[in-house]
Amino acid sequence: MREYTEEKEFRELSQYATFSRESEGREYEEEKCEVRTCFQRDRDRIIHSKAFRRLKHKTQVFIAPEGDHYRTRLTHTLEVSQIARTVARSLRLNEDLTEAIALGHDLGHTPFGHAGEEAINEVSNIDFSHNKQSLRVVEILEKRKKEMPGLNLTKEVRDGIISHTGDNEPLTLEGAIVRIADRIAYINHDIDDALRAGLIKLSDLPQNALDILGKTHSQRIDTMVSDMINESRGKNKIIRSPQIYEATQKLRKFLFDNIYFGSLAKIEEGKAKRLVKLLYKYYMENPAKIPDEFKNRIGDFSKEQIIIDYIAGMSDRYAIKVGKDIYIPEPWFVK
């Protein structure tokens, strides 16, 4: 079945696609699966990882919102995957590779979203970023087999994960799709969540951008995705038209100016950052209190790095629970 799928890729995919059979492989050699291609295996390994499951209780933008319909880091990941797969399929690129990168791109996010990331950088000597940490999760922290660290993913998936943001451009077109799909997803769903929360009205958004992209959530996504497909078709690069790119950037700037900094939705961020800093201080002073699976790595890595690994892996609610256990006294009663 795997060989049939690999052959099918050569028959049906674009000349610019990344073919499973031509993957640069894994860091540790493994016997190939009889059923799945290497990129399909990577996708499955990510989905079955503990880090992926924890995303459902990690903040996207709104910390501990009242209501079930606000995005979490997991729902964001699924929306990125859906958008990226649509583009990859339309351009006849490798959909399995695209999906694997999309599902793994945010595994290293801290609790409380970017507030947690900022807190770690403010108190530690390590240059922390969630894309680097996502790569560290799949290369080292997740455990599949005793004889090898990490998930042992292919080079193409690992490159797409670390290159989904930052200065480095992805090596594959599939990685380039995820890089843009991530931005399309968060711009649109953060507007949707902000409207639902009553933080903004539709009339507050830059109207010249809406005239180009659309007035509704689905219209804007359709416009952005269609533009990326139309502009990139038949080319060895993933691009957008100047008009759509500029309109998208206007919406992004609006979010940074009105939602991501200083809005009522972000009022809890100060508490979240203080909590992350307190956890860091506590475990730096009491490294014996971290779980054995992390503590046993001290020696291979610095104490500071291991403590950051532990804190970054926490979900929001687990970080809050640990903070309460450490710093809030429990009443006791004499029977």
Task: Kindly summarize this structure in a few lines.
The protein is mainly alpha-helical and 335 residues long. It is 58% helix and 0% strand.
Task: Describe the protein in words.
The chain is mainly α. The chain has a single domain (2-327), classed as Hypothetical protein af1432 (Orthogonal Bundle), CATH 1.10.3210. It has 16 helices and no strands. It has helices at 2-12, 38-47, 50-54, 73-90, 95-104, 113-123, 130-141, 155-162, 173-197, 207-213, 217-232, 242-260, 269-285, 292-295, 303-312, 316-327. Helix 4 packs antiparallel against helix 5, helix 5 crosses helix 8 (155-162) and helix 10 packs across helix 12. 42% of the residues are buried.
What keywords describe this structure?
single chain, 335 residues, mainly alpha, Hypothetical protein af1432, 16 helices, 58% helix, 0% strand, flat
H/E element order: HHHHHHHHHHHHHHHH
Which architecture would the CATH scheme give at its second level? Answer: Orthogonal Bundle
Structural class from helices and strands?
Answer: mainly alpha
Mean pLDDT: 93
| Terminus-to-terminus distance | 66 Å
Contiguous low-pLDDT stretches (5 residues minimum) are: none
**How helix-rich are the residues, as a percent range?**
55-70%
Strand content: under 5%
Number of structural units classed as domains: 1
Work out the helix count: 16
Overall, the morphology is flat
Mind telling me the CATH class?
A: Mainly Alpha
Radius of gyration, taken over Cα atoms and rounded to an integer in Å: 21 Å
Strand count, sense and barrel status of the largest sheet are: none
CATH fold-level assignment: Hypothetical protein af1432
How many strand units?
0
CATH superfamily: Hypothetical protein af1432
